[in-house]
Design goal:
single chain; about 950 residues; alpha+beta; five-stranded antiparallel beta sheet; 42 strands
């Protein structure tokens, strides 16, 4: 038993020893496994670190390659678009259905037939050809995209002169340069709000908003915007620095932002350079402006400086005509227009017992103030208007006293009317309201008395006097109180007459209000039929407003067929005896108080040359600046601009906003003060245009945003009629949408508006439009009363689509504003819509009976559009967005091991790339005006960011 116990104990001990050995084995195996796992983990971690380092290196290398593409793109942009004489446009200006419509092309204005250069990577780039490449941009839906060909990078390559380190890996770069100027600037805000209230009162700001839009219409792209002018939106946009940041501003949708990429940009700036001829534009606001290559500059400058006075009147007598008149000179010298004139002459006796004949003259005039502001006169002057008539005939007077009696006596005498150089004096008295027509009566300063032979029997019924004269040609001249010639009407045929009269009036002072008291008369009037009786032909008023200028200083119906067709002469002087003078068939004065305001007059400083369309051009058609018949006068759009920099105010702060809210100070460093730099004809050296828009744009949405820019809240209008003791109360419009103003300064001084009857205007039916514009009596009088138009959203879109269609039809960009304006592209786009009709048909296809009279104040013209957009439009872009791509490629495994994308916003500035001598002030100024070298003006990167693949 004891042995068994020992044996059992020994057995248990053995088991215990074997268990320890097994545990150790398991432990050893576990530790070995752990060590293996640890080793594997360390190896994996080490490998992961190596891979991360490799990926990071690949990413860095890809970024370096992307930066290489960016620098090459910047160099190409500088070389191709840096010079002034370049215009830019997107590829789809060549036509529709291109594979790469959003590529940017650069055209030289020096070599018109030269093929464009495309701002993309790759050799022999052609936007028409479909090539598999790198995608650098797309819309939210993906159906609009940009692809370019990537360029391989080999170790040791030095593409375009850029040196690469010998350790460079294999890879590619690619770039695409987006033309941001063809897009609408979303971040353009209302800068009028920043104007000093001390310098710019509420009415001044109202004029500014009527002249041009304060911003582009963002609502075209962002339907979620509720209050587009809310301070939160404005302040938020002012803080943004790139397109992507706009998504953080309240009211903007990120999806809509992505969808608007090809039509909208953050903010485009423009250099005030002349793409047609090179150099900088000259500032018409400057007092020292001169330009030997533009002969009409002096008169343009003088005319552009005219303003209404502090009381709101157009002053008369004004500047009159210049001392030297040259055809093509510009004038802004207002005076009442004489639209109807009658000269009466007769022989009278003071009494039955008188022994004298008395020859007297009288004249009637219909005077019209065609301007958008009332016209004031010097009440102390009695000769506001002096009328001189030459070419009057020699009158033959034959008389027989006691005709039929035995003691009859006969005799005769002649009177040379020209010997008296008769003058008629008109005093206006009270002011003429805007558009008002008044009749004035004048008498001659000279009275001729002819003694009768003695012994004449004073029996009027038995006294026969015959007055006769041959035909003659009259010249009528009108002078102001200063003796300055205002108008001359030549070649007026005064018909021969022979008038027997039994008895003579013994009225000591024959009535000047009744032509029956005169034996003969002469009469002419400017015909003013508002509508044509022949389809396809212009009416009288349409001719005056497009082919002739009412204000012309010289009318000659004797030598000018057009003048002759628009001046009505009374052939038979006796006909006036029984006709009511100024009868109610006249458009201008039918007795119902018509007020037709045709021409605007400056109330504040012009902000662009577009607002000069109302200047009179001597011996030329009206509204020349901005319309296709302006020809060489439209070169002013290429050569000049208005900075509105004060020239006299010594206390002006150059950092304050100007009344031209589209210009922004861009300074460069030298020893001249900023105020000195900006007060000169080349202030453009230090200015940029904010929200600049390239009119070669083929973006329909961008054009919509531009064309619908004028949006006014709580707009009021009123009318001055001096026949009322109290002025008419103003009428307030809740809003004016999609507005264009023929009378940009005086638009709020109008008699009536469709809104008064149709509060939903302009969204009214064609019949309602017809009912208002053709009234009263279906003679289009309301079309001549209103100096503004508002368009429906559809009309704006239709016009924008037609503009783009016509640009693509031309198939290449315009190279000068003069060429653009003279092409009538904007007018043709208007005519292809229902804007100027009242029956819902397009203007090109409707009858004249349903068309607003051509060039009437309510007829929208391309000059009206240019008046609105001229402060910020050009035919090239100066803001570009470069998107660059880079990758690293492993040829062994044939895989791309790293990719990177970047984006840079690049801005051209007035500063030249090269200077001849920076220490020479005069040479520096010359180099700014016309940069030396071949690279033109400098491009600068103003914003940079790296992109993810989701950003493309």
């Amino acid at each position: 038993m004891h042995r068994r116990s020992l044996t059992a104990a020994s057995s248990n001990e053995s088991v215990r020893k074997r268990g320890k050995k097994g545990f150790a084995l398991v432990l050893a195996l576990g530790l070995t496994s752990f060590l293996l796992l640890l080793l594997l983990a360390l190896t994996t971690l080490s490998r992961l670190g190596i891979e991360i380092n490799e990926a990071h290196a690949h990413r860095l290398q890809a970024r370096q390659n992307a930066l290489l593409g960016l620098h090459i793109a910047l160099g190409e942009l500088q070389k191709l678009a840096g010079p002034d004489r370049r215009v830019t446009a997107r590829a789809d200006i060549l036509g529709e259905n291109l594979e790469n419509p959003y590529w940017t092309g650069v055209w030289s204005t020096e070599e018109i037939n030269q093929e464009p250069a495309w701002l993309v990577s790759g050799i022999d780039a052609d936007p028409v050809v479909n090539r598999t490449g790198i995608k650098l941009a797309k819309s939210a839906t993906g159906n609009k995209k940009v692809t370019v060909v990537s360029v391989p990078i080999l170790r040791g390559d030095s593409p375009d002169g850029l040196s690469l380190p010998s350790s460079s890996g294999l890879g590619h770069y690619a770039y695409w340069i987006s033309d941001e100027g063809v897009k609408s600037s979303l971040a353009k805000t209302d800068r009028v709000k920043e104007l000093s209230e001390e310098s710019y009162n509420e009415q001044y700001r109202k004029h500014l908003r009527q002249l041009s839009p304060v911003r582009h219409r963002r609502e075209v792209f962002f339907t979620t915007l509720v209050n587009e002018d809310a301070e939160g939106i404005r302040e938020g946009l002012l803080k943004t620095t790139d397109y992507g940041q706009i998504a953080n501003v309240p009211g903007f949708s990120g999806d809509e932002l992505k969808g608007a990429f090809f039509g909208a940009t953050h903010l485009s700036f423009g250099v005030l350079s002349n793409a047609a001829d090179g150099g900088l534009k000259r500032d018409l606001s400057a007092s020292d402006i001169h330009d030997s290559e533009f002969p009409f500059l002096a008169s343009l400058k003088r005319a552009s400086e005219q303003r209404i006075n502090q009381e709101g009147f157009v002053e008369y007598p004004g500047g009159g005509q210049p001392a030297t008149e040259n055809s093509g000179d510009y004038l802004n010298a207002p005076s009442p227009l004489i639209t109807e004139f009658a000269l009466f002459a007769g022989i009278f006796k003071n009494s039955l017992e008188s022994d004298f004949f008395r020859l007297e003259f009288g004249c009637w005039l219909e005077l019209w103030n065609p301007y958008s502001f009332p016209m004031s006169f010097d009440l102390e002057t009695e000769n506001d208007l002096v009328i001189k008539i030459s070419g009057l005939p020699v009158i033959q007077v034959d008389w027989e006293a006691n005709r039929g009696q035995n003691n009859n006596r006969i005799g005769s005498f002649s009177i040379d009317l020209n010997a008296f150089q008769d003058e008629f004096v008109v005093n206006f008295g009270i002011p003429l309201a805007e558009g008002e027509v008044k009749t004035r009566i004048a008498r001659a300063n000279h009275v001729l008395e002819q003694s009768l032979p003695s012994g004449t029997v004073n029996n009027p019924a038995k006294n026969l006097v015959t007055i006769s004269a041959p035909a003659s040609i009259l010249t009528i001249q009108y002078f102001n109180a200063s003796g300055q010639l205002l108008r001359e009407v030549k070649g007026l045929r005064y018909e021969a007459f022979n008038t027997p009269v039994y008895g003579l009036s013994r009225n000591a002072s024959p009535s000047r209000t009744n032509p029956k008291h005169f034996q003969h008369a002469f009469h002419y009037k400017l015909l003013d039929n508002p509508f044509s009786l022949v389809e396809g032909q212009k009416s009288d008023m349409e001719k005056w407003l497009s082919d002739l200028d009412f204000r012309s200083s010289l009318l000659n119906p004797g030598n000018n067929l057009l003048h002759a067709s628009l001046i009505g002469l009374t052939v038979d002087p006796a006909a006036l005896h029984f006709v009511v003078f100024f009868d109610d068939t006249d458009l201008l004065d039918d007795g119902s108080g018509n007020y037709f305001r045709i021409f605007d007059f400056p109330a504040i400083d012009p902000v662009s040359v577009g607002s000069l369309q109302h200047l009179q051009v001597l011996q030329d058609r009206p509204f020349s600046i901005g319309n296709p018949w302006g020809d060489s006068h439209n070169a002013v759009f290429d050569r000049y601009f208005f900075s509105t920099v004060p020239t006299e105010d010594a206390t002006w702060n150059p950092l304050e906003r100007l009344s031209n809210s589209f210009v922004k100070v861009h300074d460069y460093s030298d020893n001249t003060t900023l105020e000195e730099k900006l007060k000169g004809q080349f202030s453009s050296r230090n200015l940029l245009v904010e929200g600049a828009f390239n009119m070669n744009s083929t973006s329909v949405e961008a054009w919509q945003a531009i064309l619908s820019g004028i949006h006014l809240e709580n707009w009021t209008y009123r009318f001055d009629d001096f026949s009322f003791t109290e002025p008419l109360p103003p009428i307030t419009r809740p809003s004016v949408k999609n507005g264009f103003f023929r009378l940009s300064h005086g638009a709020d001084r109008q008699f009536s508006h469709p809104f008064e009857e149709y509060p939903q205007y302009p969204e009214i039916r064609p019949q309602e439009k017809k009912d208002w514009y053709k009234r009263p009596q279906q003679d289009w009088k309301n079309a001549y009363r209103s100096g503004m138009r508002e368009l429906t959203a559809k009309e704006v879109k239709d016009m924008a689509e037609e503009i783009v269609r016509l640009l693509r039809e031309k198939a290449n960009p315009f190279i000068s504003m003069e060429q653009f304006v003279n092409s009538a592209l904007l007018q043709r786009s208007i005519n292809a819509t229902t804007i100027n009709t009242v029956d819902g048909s397009n203007y090109d296809s409707t009858l004249s009976a349903n068309s607003i009279p051509f060039n009437a104040p309510s007829f929208l013209t391309q000059a009206d559009i240019l008046s609105s957009v001229a402060p910020f439009v050009q035919l090239r872009s100066d803001t570009f967005l470069i998107r660059a791509y880079g990758d690293v490629y492993n040829p062994i495994i044939q895989q791309t091991q790293g990719r990177a994308w970047c984006e840079a916003l690049v801005q051209r500035v007035p500063e030249p790339v090269e200077f001849r001598d920076r220490t020479n002030t005069d040479l520096v100024a010359e180099d700014y005006n016309n940069p030396p070298g071949k690279f033109g003006r400098r491009f600068k990167i103003v914003h940079f960011r790296w992109l993810d693949s989701e950003d493309i």
